[in-house]
Amino acid sequence: MSAPQTDTSRGPLSGVRVLDFSRILSGPYASMVLADLGAEVIKIEPIGRGDETRAFPPFVGGLSHYYIALNRSKKSVALDLKSPEGIRIARELAAQSDIVLENFRPGVMDRLGLGYAALKAENAKLVYCSITGFGKDSPHGNKPAFDIVAQALSGVMSVNREPGQAPNKLGLPLGDMAGSIFSLFGVLAALHERHVTGHGRHVEVAMLDSLIALQGYLSQLYFVTGETPQPVGTQHPSIVPYGSFATSDGHVIVACLTEGFWHNFARCIGRPELIDDPRFARYEARLAHRLELEPIILAALGRQTTAYWLQRLAEFDVPNAPILSIAEALDQEHVAAQGLIECVEHPKLGPLRLVGSPIRFDGAGAATMRPPSLLGEDTAAVLREKLGYSDDALRALQERAVIGGVEDAPCGTPERVD
Asked: Which residues lie in coiled coils (predicted)?
């Protein structure tokens, strides 16, 4: 479809062009992963304000931490989608793109003249992805949806707590990210199919559907037993021992997912007789006698420090871990060894550390990382290179506020976009 990229990007999706109308998190995370895999991502942003997250504090050098985290390796084009000329430019870019990504409420892109039917008529090979909160056919279809809303409706919040405590949202914005992750599955599958059929698809993913799909064994637990899963905190609803246990100076994670690990753990804490105790000998018995077993474990672990138990658990080959803070997690040796943090040179901030893609191909990252673009930084270059606009035409468009340049900085509170 599109011409190969001329920059230094590499990776399996090199030569694939993505036109990204999405904002906040559910779409931008998906387009960032596509960029990590080598795709050329052109991000369309409102003039003067940009993606709403550009205004989310805290800031460094005037740039939002939120925007930085989700928008590396993309080209920013500032465009007025409320003007006929802006819509025309967007359609011209879509006609030369392989993938269009958007996360507005159902119907918004159709009203703009940028819906799937309109763009497919001009580009039959287009893979068009819509991420919504609930899907166009849902009774909630036109309601606003954010991460915490999806978490609440998915049932996830009800089990994300210690027994007897108030429901709590996940620390990660998994409601948003689930929509992104499943949209990537759909987009890449449709892209593969296009190589065979020559035709694109409309990929539709709802955040709530995605989070429900990630319930895993919890949904099946309800289907099998007829009882809704109850909160167990860090413990496991059907595996014992599994979770966080207090030591003399903190906590340690123990995960005895197999009988072999349980035997190792019993020996590790100096209680080998528990292996043959009929109350604890098998999965079902330990689950039934959880309230008897856990005090025995806590009494043993509480006699020594976390450091002591981490070393001993490793010696006995028991799955274990300390509970790290975000800072400790990013500073651990594993992260450095895997090369997960990369440093890029930002035009305003200088050296900027970013968490990179976890995907490796032949031992290396998928694509060369670029820092997040300034608002409108790539507008002129994209329209000149992709659509053949002259400098005079670009100046005229900017004078009429159809396009924005890099000097147009976000200001004030972002306007609502529905």
From this structure: none
